[in-house]
Amino acid sequence: MNALVRFVVVISVLPVFMNGSKEVDQVQLVVKKPEQEKHIRLDDQLLEISGIVPFEGGYLALNDGGPDTHLYVLDSVGRIKRKIYVSTENIDWEALTSGDGHIYIGDVGNNFGTRVNLRVIEIDLDQLNKDTLRSDDLNVITFKTPWTSEWIDQGKHDKDCEAMVYRSNRIHFFSKNRLSDEVVHLAIDLKN
Hints:
The chain has 192 residues and is an all-beta fold.
């Protein structure tokens, strides 16, 4: 199916068995023509875009995994306005979030399920006016996961953080589903 076509499905279901009486389910299907959508062709430098947050009327983005250690400042239509070099390793940057005057880079990718030392790179928003962020501009928060290798089944596991969100001095991580139908959630407190 063409991904550009949107269908809106409205389902109204009456209980099949209500007080012993048998009712018939009613399903109404409404198909609307897709609205004209804008498609943006991102620069080839962003082929592995993995995290994006609103920033200065546009966006701040990063690529997944090394060796790219840049943050990309984008305008409102996704064009690169400038790049900010972050002088730290990109083991597997997966996510980006912001809150309380900081951005947070999640170096939390764990494709093979063997990585136990993960980290978050905290950057004060005021630092983002620079073209290069040095190690003293960064606060690197390292943490170990409670996950063990015994949870890995032939390369399949639920221990690969792919998304994160900041809320109330905590960063919440959510795993990719490789093994089960459940998403693993992990949170770290930034005050500890």
